[in-house]
Amino acid sequence: MTDHAGEVVGLDAVRFRWPGQSSDIVSIDELHLGAGEHLFVRGSSGSGKTTLLNLLCGIHVPSSGTVRLLGTDLARLAPGHRDRFRADHVGVVFQQFNLLPYLSTLENVTLACAFSGRKKQRATETSKVDDTARRLLSDLNIGSELLGASVNKLSVGQQQRVAVARALIGGPEILIADEPTSALDADNRDRFMNLLFRESEARGCTLIFVSHDPELAGRFERAIELDPVIDGVGSAS
């Protein structure tokens, strides 16, 4: 039996193709990440980046092979259980941040705990959820005067920090960032990357960062390239 002790993310012989297609969209022979590792995933449009993220989040299951998070084979879980597992163990920073405009800054952060009993429990180990969110936002330089404001009133940089706080509350073991710097200029990109590294390292998160920007790869200890789809095939190299 293969020993997966210490493994946070494990992919073995993973292939994915849509029903009726003759070729794979994603083809990854082997990928293993431990606690606190940082991985850069680069690929151009059509290389399977979004599909890979959906596999890691349990939204899709592989056509063949195994995707494990924290020792759990996601394909063995029922769809509802995969959703719960993702909510409990994964934080995601989206490209467009996906903050809800009808909620306040504070409510956007605590929303993650409304969908996960585990995150709520971890967020309330030493204080109430709101207090934990306030402390996290304060660490990210979001002042108390902004907590009740609509996120639409925040600058892009402030919205970024709120999105990071929402992804980190409740101590997820895995943090996924989906092209969060694609619309930023160089200065804002660098500030965001510094923020993301600092906060993920402080909390021991395994970070998977997806981007088409090759300049960012040098900041990561590990990187993989998803080849563009050729006749329907996208693979990791």
Q: How does this structure look, described?
A:
- There is one protein chain.
- The protein is an alpha/beta fold.
- The chain has 7 helices and 9 strands, in the order βββαββαβααααβαββ.
- The longest helix has 18 residues, at about 185-205.
- The chain is globular and about 55 Å long.
Q: Any idea how many domains?
A: 1
So, the CATH homologous superfamily? P-loop containing nucleotide triphosphate hydrolases
What coarse outline follows from CA principal-axis ratios?
A: globular
Mean pLDDT figure:
90
Question: Strand order, biggest sheet?
Answer: 6-7-8-3-9
Structural class: alpha/beta
* Number of H/I helices: 7
Percent helix among the residues?
A: 25-40%
Poorly predicted runs: 230-234
- Approximately what portion of the residues adopt beta-strand conformation? 15-25%
Using only CA atoms, what is the Rg? 18 Å
Major sheet attributes = 5 strands, parallel
Brief synopsis:
The protein has 237 residues and is α/β, with parallel strands linked by helices. It has seven helices and nine strands. It has helices at 49-56, 79-89, 105-114, 117-123, 129-139, 156-168, 186-203, and strands spanning 7-16, 26-34, 38-43, 64-69, 72-73, 90-93, 174-178, 206-211, 222-226.
